[in-house]
Design brief:
Blueprint (H helix, E strand, L loop, with lengths): L2 E3 L2 E3 L7 E4 L5 H13 L1 E7 L5 H12 L3 E5 L2 E7 L9 E4 L4 H12 L4 E5 L21 E5 L2 E7 L8 E3 L5 H12 L4 E7 L5 H8 L4 E6 L2 E7 L10 E2 L4 H13 L4 E8 L6 H9 L2 E10 L2 E9 L8 E2 L11 H9 L5 E3 L12 H12 L1 E6 L2 E7 L10 E2 L6 H12 L6 E2 L12 H8 L7 E6 L6 H12 L4 E5 L1 H14 L6 H7 L16 H11 L2 H16 L5 E6 L2 H5 L7 E6 L2 H13 L9 H17 L12 E4 L6 H17 L1
Parallel strand pairs: 3-16, 4-15, 7-8, 11-12, 19-20, 23-24, 25-27, 25-28, 26-27, 28-29
Antiparallel strand pairs: 1-2, 4-6, 5-6, 8-10, 9-10, 12-14, 13-14, 16-18, 17-18, 20-22, 21-22
Helix pairs in contact: 1-2, 1-3, 3-4, 6-10, 8-10, 12-20, 13-15, 15-19, 18-19
């Protein structure tokens, strides 16, 4: 369960989601619909499901400009008065955190008989307003602080057509130029990149406004007539937001057992670039029920668990179509089997936050292998810091809603505890985000990971194997991490090398398999006497960690029992295991059991109790005093005493703990 305190959230880990859902209305379409309804001639009826703060900002802004808006639940009735606004008194209008509202409404205000001062919140005020080209329309716009808010507008109704060339792949800038052309006299011609969202031109074409678009290789030419009649939007039920869908899709493809269907999503080709990227990675995503609606393609999206995702390279010309989804795609890249490269992320620096800097800094904080080369990011999985018990705090990110939800997903698809400050920032675009996740949450069959440490020959293996028998091999499995060290020890002994060749042994890790860990020779006295020497080598322990974790987290069974010396303290510490045990037993009892065990084996001769006792004491000392990952009982481990003859006692106690954990879900 997610833990929320004040405006800080620690998301629930390792969740699965399943079901059918229709999400909040698309933010970009909601803002455009409200603005175009306000300058249409007639009454528009628009249904905006769970409008976020940005959409509400746009609606409040047009109301401040004299437009009558009546709300009945999610239905907005907008009484449009035609192109332009009118106000006899000076206005002060806040666009809060909405860059889209800023760039789409500014030319309409400047082309109307209005004097206004435009302000924004702290985040919006740090972003350049990027509308210098509006001066070409004879619009009088004066930023008070260089290129930043606040701005003063001395509006007039005599703006004229212009030829505008926009070099940056920004849908907001292209839309601003288009709208400036609509409120000016004559025909405006805009040359711009053609790899940007085209919601503005689509809705205008649907409403039969005189606008033409011609595509030429990497650019588009838009011709728009000014001061023409714009029809109202009649009964427009705005489809679900694909950018919001990205977060649910991410959880679905990264968590076992997940499958979701998201209804009535806007499938504009410039909005689903992230899905194309995910499919290249190997994600299982399909579209269905596709149709055209108010000029936009819409349909349903089904996403399901997709193991073995592969890394990809994002080309510079692909960034514009995935600009809002880059943060969540960086999270997905962490769990790919190979490296991902994201090229030319410069535009991320001009969003609600400097997303390039914020994502880079916080991914490192969470334990990601991420490299920044100028404005490019290289993601190559996770490192040992990811498994630290320290809880990273995501803060100072300018309350950027997409950053916030990206790190929520990182926690939700893994066992990594993450604290996210200013979590209410999700309300900008996805106000019912947590409720949606909770409604879809499906934890039946959730993996239960039991980490069991203890000294050699304490009975861990026997106890944990008996528990597997009790729950059944289809539901439970046992992994003895110590066998990996024994496997390498046997490899060393069989090589006949006098000195331990670490690089030679590390190469053999690539050849390890479950079947090789079942070799009876791994339990010989020769291996037992040498294994602690192998196990204390730092390079070997470092190289073994990802191998161990890969075996643990990719087990198909629901209950995974792992035995070793540093499982709870190092391999799966803190929240990465559900139950932590320290199984102990008096050393003399252990020596006696090992003596009887070896004596009954045909291939073991000259078995001596005192030698076994001496070897066990030496091994205990070596394991507990080694500098790297020593054997110890962690504070959150439950002590299980196996010094008694009745093995059923520890078995029953551990089984009860597992059953309680299962009932939680």
């Amino acid at each position: 369960m997610a833990i929320k305190k004040s405006n800080q959230l620690i998301p629930e880990n390792n969740i699965s989601i399943k079901g059918l859902v229709e999400l909040s209305s698309d933010k970009s379409l909601s803002i455009r619909s409200a603005i175009f309804a306000s300058i249409s001639y007639g009454i528009s009826k628009i249904k905006i499901k769970n409008p976020g703060e940005d959409a509400e900002t746009a609606i409040e802004a047009i109301k401040a400009l004299g437009i009558k808006v009546i709300r009945n639940k999610n239905l907005y009735t907008v009484y449009g008065l035609g192109i332009g606004y009118n106000s006899k008194r000076p206005l002060k209008i806040s666009f809060n955190n909405s860059g889209t509202t800023l760039r789409l409404l500014t030319p309409l205000i400047a082309g109307s008989k209005i004097n206004a001062k435009i302000i924004g919140d702290k985040s919006l005020s740090k972003r350049p307003y990027r509308l210098e080209f509006l001066k070409q329309f004879l619009m009088n716009i004066k930023p008070i602080n260089g290129q930043y808010l606040p701005i003063k507008i001395e509006g007039h109704e005599n703006c004229i057509q212009s030829k505008v060339k926009i070099k940056k792949p920004s849908a907001q800038m292209v839309s601003a130029a288009t709208i400036a052309g609509m409120i000016s006299y004559g025909e405006t011609i805009i040359e711009a990149p053609n790899n940007v969202r085209d919601h503005t031109t689509r809705v205008l074409k649907y409403l039969n406004y005189p606008i033409k678009v011609q595509n030429k290789k990497s650019k588009q030419i838009i011709k728009v007539q000014g001061r023409r009649f714009l029809k109202p939007l009649k009964n427009y039920n705005i489809p679900s937001d694909p950018s919001s869908s990205a977060f649910l899709i991410t959880i679905a493809i990264l968590t076992k057992g997940s499958i979701i269907k998201i209804k009535n999503v806007c499938l504009n080709p410039y909005r689903i670039g992230f899905i194309k990227v995910l499919k290249k990675m190997g994600a299982r995503i399909i579209f269905s029920n596709k149709k055209s609606y108010f000029g936009e393609p819409i349909g349903d999206i089904t996403a399901s668990y997709s193991p073995n995702l592969k890394g990809i390279t994002i080309k510079p010309n692909e960034v514009a179509s995935i600009i809002d989804e880059i943060p969540i795609l960086l999270v997905v890249a962490l769990f790919c089997k190979s490296k991902s490269i994201f090229n030319n992320l410069t535009e991320l620096k001009f969003k609600e936050s400097d997303r390039l800097r914020v994502m880079y800094k916080n991914l490192i904080l969470c334990g990601a292998n991420v490299t920044r080369v100028k404005d490019n990011l290289i993601i190559d999985g996770i490192n040992n810091r990811f498994y630290s018990s320290e809880v990273p705090i995501i803060k100072d990110y300018s309350k950027d809603h997409r950053i916030c939800m990206a790190f929520f997903c990182l926690a939700a698809v893994s066992r990594k505890k993450i604290q996210i400050n200013d979590f209410d920032s999700v309300n900008v675009s996805f106000p019912n985000f947590l409720k949606t996740i909770n409604d879809l949450k499906y934890n039946k069959g959730k993996k239960i990971l039991v980490a069991a440490d203890g000294p050699v020959a304490c009975g861990k293996t026997s106890i944990l194997k008996k528990i597997v028998e009790k729950f059944g091999s289809k539901k439970a499995t046992f992994l003895d991490s110590g066998l990996l060290y024994r496997y390498l020890t046997l490899v060393h002994l069989q090589s006949k090398k006098k000195k331990i060749n670490t690089n030679f042994l590390v190469k053999h890790l690539k050849k390890v398999s479950i079947s090789k860990l079942q070799n009876p020779k791994l339990h010989s006295i020769a291996v037992s006497n040498k294994v602690s020497e192998i196990a204390k080598i730092k390079l070997i322990r470092d190289e073994l960690l990802p191998v161990q974790r890969d075996l643990i987290f990719n087990c198909p069974q629901q209950i995974v029992l792992v035995g070793g010396r540093d499982i709870a303290s190092n391999v799966v510490p803190s929240n990465f295991s559900d139950i932590k045990l320290y199984i102990d037993c008096d050393v003399k009892v252990r020596a006696k059991r090992r003596f009887l065990e070896l004596k009954n084996k045909k291939n073991e001769k000259n078995v001596n109790y005192q030698e076994i006792l001496k070897a066990l004491k030496a091994r205990d000392l070596a394991d507990s005093t080694r500098a790297i990952s020593p054997l110890k009982k962690t504070k959150d481990s439950i002590l299980i005493d196996n010094s008694f003859n009745d093995i059923s006692r520890p078995i029953n106690k551990i089984s009860l703990l597992i059953e309680r954990e299962i009932k939680k879900h």
